[in-house]
Automatic annotation (TrEMBL), chain A:
Highest taxon, organism lineage: Bacteria
Keywords associated with the record: Coiled coil, Kinase, Phosphoprotein, Transferase
Protein name: histidine kinase
Single GO MF descriptor: phosphorelay sensor kinase activity
SMART domains reported in the protein's UniProt record: HATPase_c, HisKA, PAC, PAS
UniProt KW Transferase keyword: yes
Record-linked NCBIfam families: sensory_box
Coiled coil: 251-278
Domain (PAC) ranges: 76-130, 204-256
Automatic annotation (TrEMBL), chain B:
PROSITE patterns associated with the record: RESPONSE_REGULATORY
Sorted UniProt keywords: Phosphoprotein
Phosphoprotein recorded as keyword: yes
SUPFAM superfamilies according to UniProt: CheY-like
Pfam short name (any one): Response_reg
PANTHER family assigned to the protein according to its UniProt record, in alphabetical order: RESPONSE REGULATOR RCP1 (PTHR44520:SF2), RESPONSE REGULATOR RCP1-RELATED (PTHR44520)
Domain Response regulatory: 4-124
One annotated GO biological process: phosphorelay signal transduction system
Protein's name in the database: Response regulator
PTM-bearing positions, type 4-aspartylphosphate: 57
Range of residues in the leader sequence: none
Length: 507, 144
């Protein structure tokens, strides 16, 4: 008996034995005392309702009376109970049982109360339920249909919204098979592939068309996640589906618009390219054919000069001037021809040592350099990918300018340096990358900075023909060559202070 | 025996200047002129003996210089006649093409009468019996 008593006292379940209709506490264990937050001395041999007056008004007195009157056991699960503890009223969820204790003659003489505190369990469950509730509300707000696919037993649960997305009334019982059959025949393979992929990746994701019972076509986006057991065996797939018909239609509209615009752009690009080609062709033919009559004018003029002894001195002067003019025209035609030929398309590009190329150009200009007593200083120059003949032409033009626009009595000095520059520092048209920067500085007559862009335009000259010869095409050719190389050419200068040309090439 | 030249050129100014230049250099050189490629091929067919040299313009109506060259290389009796291209063009592609077609020299039509004379003089001075092989590409274009 002692042992039984002891085990009762230490049981994890709260126990009280109540005697008589007064419900005097005859025996109580520690667990019960902990639940009601009372000391043993406070409760021993006192009526229950005196000890726990807060039970008055709750359902317990009635139930206890029922045990007395009917002799039947009363039990309840997760009964909400309030107990006034020392630090205020506390809320409990209790599983309890009131068992009648009988005399030998069968009359009820007491009640055995067992109480199990399940508050933690109930509250945890309530939390989960609240979270589920919130999630459900969120899902409903996003118009997502949800599904839960038991892969082991091939059971499929679909939310009312999912069923709706497939065009059925929300409360219809729609089978998994029906949903699969609703897929557009052309998109069936999309789902099949996505599902089989999901078994390796764990994630399901696809967009496909479905056909509603009313035959209308809708787009859905399906996402899912597979839950595995400990052996990585797939157990279930949870997922969502959403109707993206509007979005898809919008995207398709947009794509169509983009395609239309692209086609238009392509066409106008094509037209522009064609017109550019025609222009180049025209420049080529025109300048080529212009040479023919010019050559004859020159030849016949030399014939007259050689054979017509009777010409007066004035007549001879006129012929000399005519020859001069036709020489200019010849140069002009040659330059226009050269300009029209400076295209990038189909040109051979190779890695070229700029230093060697410059030495080459210098060699070709050596006669002129000696004549004016020019010196060139050259730093180490990079190897660059260029169209060789075009870059040779470019350097020739710039050096020839430096040797042409010189100050009287000052020996020309040209200094060539190389470095790099950040694309953003060059100008809005430059890319983000790094560019080689070649600087060619001279000590010639320079130019007014306000013309620093104009000098690169075709036929723009800053000097009269009597001062300096030229057609106004040389620097325009340079600019076109730099354009062909996706590079840039700029110039700085001051009158009387020399000019510096900067070449920028993508590194 | 006197040399005989052929000149095929559709431009009568150029034919006049060529003839003037040739006459100043030599009185007895025989010159037969054709006004285009078709005319050239017909006159070649009738001419006995064959000319020592043909001066050939490229850009001509009806049959151009390229076509004439190709045709002459097809016909056995014309195959060995030296051809000097005489053109306004200094297009690299034209030079390259005529060289491959077996022309002997390339002259870019000179801009003065004196240079024209030097060009003709240089061609007249060639002993074609020593020039049975085409010159190297570097020597193909004659500069004046």
């Amino acid at each position: 008996m002692d042992k039984f008593y002891q085990s009762l006292m230490q049981a994890p379940i709260g126990m009280v034995v109540l005697r008589g209709r007064e419900l005097v506490i005859e025996m109580v264990n520690d667990t019960y005392l902990t639940i009601v937050d009372r000391a043993r001395e406070e409760v021993a041999n006192r009526p229950l309702m005196d000890v726990l007056p807060e039970l008055q008004g709750q359902r317990f007195p009635e139930l206890l009376r029922a045990v007395w009157e009917t002799g039947n056991t009363q039990r309840e699960s997760e009964a909400l109970t309030y107990v006034d503890s020392h630090d205020g009223r506390r809320k409990y969820y209790l599983d309890f049982e009131y068992t009648p204790l009988r005399e030998l003659n069968g009359t009820v003489s007491g009640i055995m109360v067992t109480v199990n505190d399940v508050t933690v369990k109930v509250e945890a469950r309530e939390k989960i339920q609240a979270a589920e509730q919130r999630l459900r509300l969120a899902i409903e707000a996003t118009n997502l249909g949800t599904f839960d696919w038991d892969l082991e037993n091939q059971e499929f649960y679909s939310s009312p919204r999912l069923v709706e997305i497939f065009g059925f009334p929300a409360d219809d019982a729609v089978s998994h098979q029906q949903l699969i059959e609703a897929l557009h025949p052309d998109d069936l393979h999309i789902r099949e592939k996505a599902v089989s992929t999901s078994f390796t990746t764990g994630g399901l994701s696809y967009e496909a068309r479905i056909i509603w019972p009313d035959k209308s076509v809708h787009w859905i986006r399906v996402r899912g996640k597979i839950v595995h057991d400990d052996d990585r065996k797939p157990l279930r797939m949870y997922g969502t589906a959403v109707d993206i018909t509007q979005q898809k239609t919008f995207t398709q509209e947009l794509e169509k618009k983009v395609q239309e615009r692209t086609a238009e752009l392509k066409e106008s690009n094509h037209a522009l390219q064609k017109s550019n080609e025609e222009l180049a062709q025209f420049a080529f033919v025109a300048s080529h054919d212009l040479q023919e009559p010019l050559r004859k004018i020159q030849t016949f003029a030399t014939r007259i000069q050689a054979t017509e002894d009777a010409l007066t001195d004035r007549g001879k002067d006129y012929f000399r001037r005519m020859q001069q003019a036709s020489m200019q025209m010849q140069q002009l035609i040659a330059d226009v021809l050269s300009y029209s030929r400076m295209n990038a398309a189909g040109q051979h590009v190779e890695a070229l040592d700029l230093g060697m190329l410059l030495a080459n150009v210098q060699e070709q200009l050596s006669e002129r350099m000696e004549a004016v007593g020019a010196t060139i200083e050259m730093a180490a120059l990079p190897v660059v990918k260029v169209i060789p003949y075009q870059f040779e032409q470019l350097l020739t033009n710039i050096l020839a300018n430096a040797l042409k626009y010189i100050k009287p009595d000052v020996p020309p000095r040209i200094v060539i340096t190389a470095g790099t520059a950040d694309g953003q520092a060059i100008g809005p048209l430059a890319g983000d990358g790094v560019y080689y920067r070649i600087a060619i500085a001279d000590n010639g007559i320079g130019f007014d900075p306000q013309y620093s862009e104009r000098i690169f335009q075709v036929f723009q000259r800053l000097h009269g023909r009597n001062e300096y010869e030229g057609t106004g095409i040389g620097l325009a050719i340079c600019k076109k060559i730099m354009d062909n190389h996706h590079g840039f050419i700029t110039a700085t200068g001051e009158p009387g202070q020399g000019a510096t040309f900067f070449l920028y090439l993508p590194a | 025996m006197a040399q005989s030249f052929f000149l095929a050129d559709d431009d009568d100014d150029d034919r006049l200047l060529f003839e003037d230049a040739l006459r100043e250099l030599s009185a007895d050189t025989n010159l037969i002129m054709a006004t285009d490629g078709v005319d050239l091929m017909e006159k070649l067919e009738e001419t006995v003996p064959l000319p020592c040299v043909i001066f050939l313009d490229i850009n001509m109506p009806r049959k151009n210089g390229f076509e004439c060259l190709a045709e002459m290389r097809q016909i056995e009796k014309f195959r060995a006649i030296p051809v000097v291209i005489f053109s306004t063009s200094n297009e690299e592609s034209t030079i390259e093409r005529t060289y491959r077609q077996g022309a002997s020299f390339y002259i870019h039509k000179p801009r003065t009468f004196d240079k024209l004379k030097s060009a003709i003089r240089q061609i007249m001075a060639i002993d074609w019996s020593l020039h049975t092989v085409q010159p190297s590409k570097e020597k193909y274009v004659l500069q004046f």
